[in-house]
């Protein structure tokens, strides 16, 4: 695998008009959460296809991509890690996890987190100690906090909700809208599988939940039930 090949394939698929839209959508302006991020206009499916093609790349060769200022190049590196993790043995999975955790400063936009955290961090921790997630949830880093809650999607898919609820409680007073959305999304995913479990959590916390978090978590409820929750939220 050649890093140059990955970059060239991404460049070939780039579209300046789409890049402009993505720059705005992912809030790359001054003072915004994605400040300075550079897009070239390649879609996620296109980037994923390139990642699958180059999934045999040694981890050490991914550094140039992962440290790139170009968003799609970082995404390609992370999706290569996801592909490698799927086929890896226990030893290599640990190496991939450690590499991911050591490089979270480059997992620095919400799509980069959402496309990888559950598939690497969550999957690895399914039967292991979850301490690192709680440490991340207490972090000052927006992206580490989002990794913490999104990683639990792997547990939710196995109908295990305890860690999601614990981390959601840690993040109830967080002020960032991207955290509110992520927590609400995970609570909604629990509700798809066990509505009683989600509502038990909501009944305990909904009055003090950030409104965006609550809205996301009750999105699939009936209109009558949604309004009942919203009216009692302050």
Describe the structure.
By secondary structure, the chain is mainly alpha-helical. The protein is 66% helix and 0% strand. It is built from 16 helices and no strands. The protein has helices spanning 3-13, 16-25, 44-53, 63-66, 71-87, 90-102, 110-114, 117-125, 131-137, 142-151, 153-156, 162-170, 177-193, 195-205, 211-217, 223-232. α1 packs antiparallel against α3 (44-53) and α5 (71-87) packs antiparallel against α6. The chain is globular, with a radius of gyration of 19 Å. The N and C termini lie far apart (54 Å). The model has no long low-confidence stretch (mean pLDDT 95).
- The residue fraction in helices comes out at 55-70%
Q: Tally the helices.
A: 16
Order of helices and strands: HHHHHHHHHHHHHHHH
Overall body shape: globular
Q: Note the main sheet.
A: none
Poorly predicted regions: none
Tags for this entry?
234 residues
Itemize the secondary structure elements and their pairings.
Layout: H1 3-13, H2 16-25, H3 44-53, H4 63-66, H5 71-87, H6 90-102, H7 110-114, H8 117-125, H9 131-137, H10 142-151, H11 153-156, H12 162-170, H13 177-193, H14 195-205, H15 211-217, H16 223-232
């Amino acid at each position: 695998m050649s890093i140059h090949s990955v970059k060239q394939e991404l460049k070939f698929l780039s579209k300046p008009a789409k890049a402009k839209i993505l720059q705005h959508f992912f809030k790359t302006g001054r003072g915004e959460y994605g400040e300075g991020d550079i897009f070239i206009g390649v879609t996620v499916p296109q980037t994923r296809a390139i990642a699958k093609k180059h999934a045999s790349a040694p981890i050490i060769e991914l550094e140039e991509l992962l440290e790139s200022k170009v968003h799609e190049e970082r995404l390609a590196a992370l999706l290569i890690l996801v592909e490698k993790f799927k086929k890896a043995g226990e030893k290599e999975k640990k190496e991939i996890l450690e590499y991911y955790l050591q490089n979270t400063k480059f997992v620095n936009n919400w799509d980069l987190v959402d496309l990888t955290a559950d598939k690497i961090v969550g999957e690895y921790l399914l039967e292991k100690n979850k301490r690192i997630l709680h440490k991340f949830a207490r972090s000052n880093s927006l992206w580490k906090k989002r990794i913490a809650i999104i990683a639990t999607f792997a547990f939710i898919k196995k109908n295990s909700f305890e860690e999601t609820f614990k981390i959601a409680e840690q993040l109830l007073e967080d002020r960032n809208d991207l955290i509110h959305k992520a927590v609400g999304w995970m609570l909604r995913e629990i509700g798809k599988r066990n509505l009683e479990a989600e509502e038990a959590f909501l009944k305990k916390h909904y009055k003090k939940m950030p409104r965006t978090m609550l809205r996301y978590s009750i999105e699939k409820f009936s209109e009558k039930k949604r309004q009942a929750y919203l009216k009692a939220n302050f």
